[in-house]
Design brief:
The complex is a heterodimer of chains A (231) and B (220). Chain A is mainly α. Chain A contains ten helices and no strands. The longest helix of chain A has 34 residues. Chain B has 220 residues and is an alpha/beta fold. Chain B contains six helices and eleven strands. The two termini of chain B are 25 Å apart. Classes of the chains: A mainly alpha (231), B alpha/beta (220). At the A-B interface, helix 6 and helix 7 of A face strand 7 and helix 2 of B.
């Protein structure tokens, strides 16, 4: 069996915490944005769409640096949040969660958007004729029907968040116990003499986590689809 | 009472209709493409007329010059579509209960069991729409619309997707509904036989124009 050391456990648990928080916080925004992009035409839509996808194509170090400039202690947003709300991102695990959330956002939004686009809008019309106000239609028809896509997006976002490296290390550095996730721990271990065994163990853990997430998502999507088709 | 006086341009196609009816079942008759569905969608509020007024049960739901357009969900109508449109993620019982929940109506077990008996759908309550036959689906859709306690029931070719045998299976339920439920209906069809059995008044449409309005004898 894998003989995982306490320091490695710390990195694993931190990664899980960062990825879970990043996914949970990003999900409502992701659903709202997916709905907006799937259902509405407005001025600047292509720009917004491009902006959401930017972290996917930008060098992660650039995204991380931009986060540092914006959300660092001296950044425009970061300074305001720190002074008025006491929320600090720089060199904290919360900053790692923010970086992971931003980096995984395009992957999280995409399946949600596709599943909302695939919904038969005539069902929403039917709900309206039965007296459902638009927000009720959203929560009783649109969202339940989009659920497989919502979960797929969450899982994909989670898997991406747990593996995020470049933006995280640029934004919040690589502090054991605070911002050192599995990825940055592996990075440090590879550069340390005799670190190979520990790096290998963390590599196996990250493969297991990623695979588990993908298989779980597939299983859930199949179950949800079967449910919709009447079983 | 239903009063309709509208005009609507849909691409190349222009639709205009004007009638006032106190009838129990208004049959909207015409070939496909005559504008029947567009007219019903306007009564439902899913489509907005370019000009004119629609009054349901004394309430003006559309008046273009006065800027009135009551949204569909506040019109208290029931709509049975040709393709049923049951919610696939809900079972039959939940589908039937949907309108009552959305309108925050108190449960009415009496009406509930009366309609389930009338439509013979008691055995289907636990099933999902995916496991129903076409005829069963239409009966559930009818029940779902009725249980939302509408003041006007719109039926857009509710038998259109069914074969002859299924049509004969549902028609008696519709006749019973007309005689027992006491809700005015607008019934869209291109089938003369169907309308003869059900309608009390006929609005005839041809290429977007009303060609006649009167008793069932105008179908002759």
């Amino acid at each position: 069996m894998l003989d995982i050391s306490p320091a490695e456990w710390t990195a694993i648990l931190l990664s899980l915490r960062v990825a879970v928080i990043a996914t949970l916080v990003a999900t409502p925004f992701g659903i709202a944005l997916a709905w907006l992009l799937a259902r509405h035409d407005f001025w600047g839509k292509s720009l917004l769409d491009a902006l959401v996808h930017l972290p996917l194509v930008l060098p992660p170090v650039v995204t991380g640096y931009l986060l540092l400039l914006t959300f660092g202690r001296k950044g425009l947003v970061g300074g305001f949040l720190a002074d008025h709300l006491g929320i600090v991102f720089a060199f904290r695990w919360t900053g790692a969660a923010l970086a992971c959330g931003v980096m995984s956002f395009p992957l999280l939004v995409r399946p949600m958007r596709l599943s909302i686009e695939a919904i038969d809008r005539r069902l929403e019309q039917a709900a309206e004729t039965l007296g459902a106000a638009p927000w009720k239609v959203f929560f009783t028809v649109t969202l339940p029907l989009a659920l497989p896509g919502v979960v797929a997006g969450m899982v994909l976002g989670f898997a991406k968040a747990i593996g995020e490296f470049g933006a995280t290390i640029t934004f919040v550095s690589n502090i054991p116990g605070e911002t050192q996730t599995i990825s940055s721990a592996i990075y440090s271990l590879i550069q340390t003499p005799d670190g190979d065994a520990a790096a290998g163990r963390l590599v196996i853990v990250s493969i297991v986590l990623a695979l588990g997430a993908l298989i779980g998502a597939e299983w859930f999507a199949r179950r949800a689809t079967a449910r919709l088709h009447g079983n | 009472m239903l009063r309709v006086d509208i005009e609507k341009q849909l691409g190349e196609f222009s639709l205009s209709a004007s009638f006032t009816s106190e009838g129990r079942v208004i049959g909207l008759f015409g070939a496909s493409g005559a504008g029947k569905s567009s007219l019903v969608n306007m009564i439902a509020g899913l489509l907005r007329p370019d000009r004119g007024t629609i009054v349901i049960d004394g309430e003006t739901v559309d008046d273009i010059t006065a800027g009135i357009h009551v949204p569909t969900w506040r019109r208290r109508i029931g709509y049975v579509f040709q393709d049923a449109r049951l919610f696939p993620h809900l079972n039959v019982a939940q589908n039937l209960d949907y309108g009552r929940r959305m309108n925050s109506l108190a449960p009415d077990p009496g009406q509930h069991s009366r309609i389930i008996d009338l439509l013979d759908i008691g055995a289907l309550l636990d099933r999902r729409p995916g496991k129903l036959s076409g005829g069963e689906r239409q009966r559930v859709a009818l029940g779902r619309a009725l249980l939302s306690k509408p003041r006007l029931l719109l039926l857009d070719e509710p038998l259109g997707a069914l074969d002859e045998a299924r049509k004969l299976e549902i028609l008696p339920y519709l006749v019973r509904l007309r005689d027992e439920a006491n809700i005015p209906m607008v019934y869209v069809s291109h089938d003369v036989a169907e309308l003869r059995q059900l309608a009390t008044q006929i609005v005839m449409l041809r290429q977007g124009r009303m060609t006649s309005f009167g008793g069932v004898k105008v179908l002759a």
